[in-house]
Amino acid sequence: AQKITQTQPGMFVQEKEAVTLDCTYDTSDPSYGLFWYKQPSSGEMIFLIYQGSYDQQNATEGRYSLNFQKARKSANLVISASQLGDSAMYFCAMMREHNTDKLIFGTGTRLQVFP
Amino acid sequence: KAGVTQTPRYLIKTRGQQVTLSCSPISGHRSVSWYQQTPGQGLQFLFEYFSETQRNKGNFPGRFSGRQFSNSRSEMNVSTLELGDSALYLCASSPLEGADTQYFGPGTRLTVL
Q: Which of B33, B43, B48 sits opposite A91 (nearest CB)?
């Protein structure tokens, strides 16, 4: 069965510093997609970044990058130059890339950025 | 382009009642998925619709149902509400199934008293 594990319930980082949020996954499917979402206190899930299982390069989107290590089944999110507005819950999710939009989510990591 | 919209944003119901939640996907998106988020169970997949057909269903009782219209708008219905149905219900849309982007709406927060 597919599973996403986020072992860090909470993380603290100082403004302007970089932070890594951990995510490991378990699947026997050869083709899958990995996502990171941010959920502020308002509740809306904000799409951050996507990595396909066959992508050779690590995905990057502005200050977000995904450290994809396929052999270790990890997909860590790196946020560079943290900002106060980055304080939120962060969810890692996985989807099989065939005929389904079903996302399986991890339990999330609460990131708090302090001045 | 307007994002995913969900109505209503907040809802209070009592046990035994039924509720209908609405989701309008991003223009041009044909796939709509629904998720339930609770503090205890986290984010759980409810169902997915593509071209008016339910393509996938999560492990929820039959009280939870949904449908999708020809304009891709989707509704989900929960009948005979229970206290445990109190949750944030999130809708997501994507252009195609298995796309590399799924965009979520702001959610409907349902409270069952």
A: B43
